[in-house]
Amino acid sequence: MVRRFPLGRAPQICILLASLVFYAWPKPANLPYLLGSILGNWLLARWIASATGLARKRILQLSLVLNLAFLCAFKYLDFIAETLNGVFGRHLPLPGLAFPLGISFFTLTQIMYLVDCYEQLVPANTLFDHATFVSFFPYVISGPLSRAKRILHQFPVLNAREGPAAELVARALYLFSLGLVKKVVLADAFSRVADYGWASIASWSALEAWVVVTSYALQIYFDFSGYSDMAIASALLFGIDIPRNFDAPLRAKSIIEYWQRWHISLTSFITTYLYTPIMQSFRRITLATSAVATIAAMTIAGLWHGPNWTYVLFGTVHGAGLAINQVWRRKKMPALPGFLSWLLTFAVYDVGFAFFRSPDVTSAFKILGRMFNWHDPFGTFLFLGMNGRGPMLVIYLAAQACGICAAFLGKSTDQLARDFKPTWPSYAAAVACALLAFLYLNSNVVTPFVYAGF
Amino acid sequence: MRMTARRWIALTLTTIAAAIGLATLAAFMIDPFGVLRDPTGRKLSVYDFERNAKFFMNQRYVPANFDGLIIGASSAANWDMPVLGGTRMYNDCLPGGNIVEESILVDQALRKGRFKLAVILLSPIETRTHEIHDGLDTIRSSEAIASIPLLYNEAAGLLRASGLPFRKSDASPDGKVELPYRKNLYAEPLPPDVFQIDPPALLREQQLVGTLENRGTRVIYVVPPVYEPLYQVNRSSYEAWLKTILPLIPRAPVINLNTPEYSVFRGDSSNFIDPFHLEPQAATEEVELLGRLVSQAAASAN
User: Min CA distance, B127 vs chain A (Å)?
Assistant: First the structure.
């Protein structure tokens, strides 16, 4: 509506205000942290832009330290204190600061921005543009992590009088309905099995353990990719193209391919801002240093998910998997048959998710023990209660069957959106998905977004 | 097959709006929970999703059509007793429920209703925990307009009304539901935590009985029958639990169906689905007995 009036950048002002309201809505006390971070980083970026020579590098280093300290203060201080208390038998006080919503995402976004400013890939923004970029509501809480150079040049579209093309809006609605159904129907159907299984770890057979952990993998995939689809679609409604985040990762036939398809924006961050600097810190680039850098980068990325050793081990498992995969490729060892490669990749990410979902390392190892429980490989008793009873049993089983097909067969939502044409089948799909999601949303069966917790 | 993007958007949004409108219209017309229209004199059954259905039915349907409530977990959920001691009873029992969850239902009913009689089951399961399951405490009014439980009960009601077969054939308008359990009788010691009394659950039970009595409702406690072999294995625990709880809750007449005089009934395995739930024909027999006992208890209390 704002576009109808000749108000210059009024549409962008509205979007900025709407984004801040969206961010502050669940907990208004979070807003000062976001605003403080935006203001602080904007000043730092201008400082970097105006400096030269070594001073420029020092300011960047200071900026990174400040951002990491900001993140650590809220997210990791208790974890560090608890670990030190545990190791050295000390009684350091736990500050217990509640971490602001989306802090991991908006801090990384701004770290990328500062590095890009330092490398002169983007100019230092105006405060208005910087605030709009960082707080843009589709990605401020749970990503995708967006680089300034990808977003900023699109801002004129926000203020364009004609608005986004109808084709783009239709594509956005289509993708949004697919994302919504992934989150509220498919992810929640798998969360039933995962929650049920995790509540009764002690009695799993190996088969049940793999089913439960795979259900969690599917839950988190549909949950996060559904959220990402909705975020991309929401941005598209304003004419902004934000990076895609998933590309059917559970079909990957190697762990390298898996990370090229899973949380793509995080992978890009890890590669550019963690792995590359770690590699540059070595004097020689060898297969061994590459493996060390990979494991180190992935371990840090694991820790980014939260202050728990389970996340660290999740990152380490993937780092080790990636390192082995790299060695295998570089040594030109024989390629495994397609199905076997997929199965091996599947096993690695399932082991990773066993750590990711577990409340502590002990539970994670118990689950691993169950996954490789040769004494009771094929027990199925737990399956009887996994999906409840009555009509919900049928509903959940149907949703799980659809979810398995969507995850392992057919086109991904990203591909479907790219191939979108305004036809009767796409109309029927969008309407069916929207109505189904609406029914679920209004039925008190939907669980919160998993990644909103990071 | 192709259309313009503008037409696609208009068609999609219009269809979604129309479908939501139709669902709302159907909800008003069928109103299986009796919340959207005057439910006086209607006969509404719970076919499934007992928690959601009974939550809504307690808002208008139960106060408009019943003078008494049976409050408890699943052990009496399949007892069909439309009239007890001259009072029109609604079976508010909740499969898998505890006293805190059951109180949520009663709270709904007490907003608009006054009840002459409340039969409250006394069973360890009631006070073992105060956990609320399946979002009973977060049900929104909009679920009575479009939701999975609503659609299911609408469809089931329509199937029954059309004379088509439906598995919940004996759900009745007084709140009785069919229990989907399989025959499974056993006689093992129950874990000690079954007999624990959870303080918040106890507090809620005390508050519930107090509220009912303050509103002029006569309260009678009923200890539901437990399959005799299992009861004997756990007898000391059951007796200790009852002895502990009775002084902690407001005084009211107690009908204990686990006393020796009912042991023949309890010892007959054909009467039980599992140690805690009666077969339908045994439930009918039990209801007749309970009718007599409640009348006696009410008369002696007067």
Answer: 22
Q: Contacts of residue A173 in chain B, CB cutoff 8 Å?
A: 9, 12-13
Least Cα distance to A260 among A211, A325, A169, A215 occurs for: A325
Contact A443 B147 (CB under 8 A): yes
Q: What is the ipTM for the molecules in this complex? A: 0.82
**A179 and A131 share a domain?**
no
pLDDT in tens, B126-141: 999 998 887 788 888 8
Asked whether the predicted pLDDT for residue B181 surpasses 80, the reply is no
Report pLDDT for B167: 61
Q: What is the mean pLDDT of residues A52-68?
A: 92
Q: A303-321 pLDDT, tens per residue?
A: 988 889 999 999 999 999 9
| CB proximity A17 to B under 8 Å | no
Amino acid letter for position B252? A
Q: Nearest Cβ partner of A445 from B1, B6, B148?
A: B148
The C-alpha atoms of residue B76 and residue B94 are separated, in whole angstroms, by 9
One DSSP character per residue, B109-151 reads: HHHH---SEEEEE--HHHHS-----TTGGG--GGGGTS-HHHH
Cβ pair A391:B152 closer than 8 A = yes
**Residue A447: which pLDDT band, with cuts at 50, 70 and 90?**
low
Q: Is there a single domain that holds both residue A117 and residue A206?
A: no
Q: What percent of chain A has pLDDT over 90?
A: 58
Of the candidates A138, A158, A178, which is a domain's last residue? A158
Task: Check if A448 contacts B (Cβ < 8 Å).
Answer: no
Q: Which residues of B touch A167 (CB under 8 A)?
A: 5
Mean pLDDT, rounded, of chain A: 89
| φ/ψ (deg, to 5) at B275 | -60, -15
Which residue range forms the structural domain that includes residue A9?
2-158
Domain count, chain A: 2
* pLDDT range class, residue B118, cuts 50, 70, 90: very high
Q: How confident is the model over A407-439, as pLDDT tens digits?
A: 998 889 999 999 999 999 999 999 999 999 999
Same domain flag for A193 and A126 = no
Residues A125 and A9 in one domain: yes
Residues A37 and A173 in one domain: no
Is the same domain home to A152 and A176? Answer: no
Q: What is the pLDDT of residue A99?
A: 82
pLDDT in tens, A386-396: 766 677 788 88
Residues in A 165-184 with any Cβ partner in B closer than 8 A: 165-167, 169-170, 173
Q: Are residues A305 and A338 in the same domain?
A: yes
- Based on the fold, state whether residues A343 and A387 are members of the same structural domain: yes
Residues of A belonging to the active site: 305
Tokens at A417, concatenated: 């959106």
Averaged pLDDT for residues B8-37: 94
Q: How many CB pairs under 8 A join A and B?
A: 83
